[in-house]
Amino acid sequence: MSSDIGSTLSSRDPDSLLEHLQHLMESGPGTPVGQALELFLRCTERVRVALPGSDSGETLARSSEAGMAVRRFLDQDRKAGFATANLCDIGHYLKALRNADQDPVPVDAGLGPAGPDRERSGSSPWLDTGREEGPGEAELSSWLADAVDQVEAAAGRITPIRVKQGWVESGRTAEAILTSRGLRAGRSRARTWAALQVVSEGGGELFHRPRLLVGERAGGLPDVEPVLERLQAFPFFHKEAGLTPGAPLVFLPEAAATLIQAVVTLFHGAGERTGEPVGRGWCLTDDPHRLEMPFGGQFDDTGRGSQVLKLADGAHSLATLGEEGHGWRRSFRDPPQRSFSNLVVAETGETRPEHGFLVSELRILRLSPKRFLAVAHGNSLEDGTPAADGGRIRFTFNPWRIPARIRGTCGRSRNTALGVATPELVLESGKSVHFV
Description:
GO terms for molecular function: metallopeptidase activity. By secondary structure, the protein is an alpha+beta fold. It has nine helices and 18 strands. Strands 8, 9, 12, 13, 14, 15, 16, 17 and 18 form a nine-stranded mixed sheet that branches. A seven-stranded antiparallel sheet has the order 4-3-2-1-5-6-7. It has a two-stranded antiparallel sheet with strand order 10-11. A hairpin with an 8-residue loop joins strand 10 and strand 11 (337-339). Helix 5 (137-156) packs parallel to helix 6.
């Protein structure tokens, strides 16, 4: 295979990525008897089309990125070494191998999801190895113009409005995993996000402040109809869900992990100040060698479920950047940055509130440094137990105020696929949460 990594990555084809990994493995020093080697490669690209005057200042933006991770098992010592690189040519691969060998840590043979025992069973690290293609620039531009026309026409029958800002963004990720024991898997994913901010032109009560409409879809363009339904459903989602304004929100561990990862670096930097209480119910520690936790999280760059687990960790994750730490990226548009590896939230032993809203699923969109939008799925709480009336709420919050609103945690801590071990998290809605 050609070693032209530029053309390989630009294709965003999982089969080409597998060929490139095979080329790297064959060009390297080889795998000694009694050892096992795993290679993981991910390429991402995104294109964003925005209305003139939007916050980004750009009507068209593109970006792409590629990176790899290696894990080497030393069976005779029951140890494994990890390393990542932000580029994937032969030079960075060899450097990652050296970094992985510097400080291996103990590991049980079957603990790693792509480790020896799992490989012998022949199971794939991904449940779905499909291929998806996202829409291009022309399709995004056409969708945005059509969505603006439909939203303004539909809402105009109630009160005159205009779409003040708006954007639509498509992202695609291609991934491949190759091991010295013969495991090969590749896939590509695509997801499109869109947001429209509408403001009242007639002073109607319905739009007394700007409203944000959000849509998303895996593989293709979002449907406009659900966006129109949400527009005409104001006010408000939390009434349908049976939530009293001001009632506490209780986040199940998976949802709590999403919230924590969205705001944690505001209060703990890149991990230097963990272990110190923040607010009444928030105390975090960071364990970079917690091997049962996943690398990269349960979700890939498109927000889709992933069964690829720890291929890099802890002390050597950012070795190619000249510093130690764990590399983490918020989204397609963000470069890797030093952050946490595996967070552990301290238990405070609070009792679950009798009334409120139990959040089982959570998605968060960063609107500005001091304003995040959250979409939460769950159930009302009645006498501390989930009611049968499942619903969805949307709320904005100031991330800087979250720790002050945390009452504490309920139940026992549980590992989550996002690399956060946490109990249930109880949050006072208060003034930091505004339902929309």
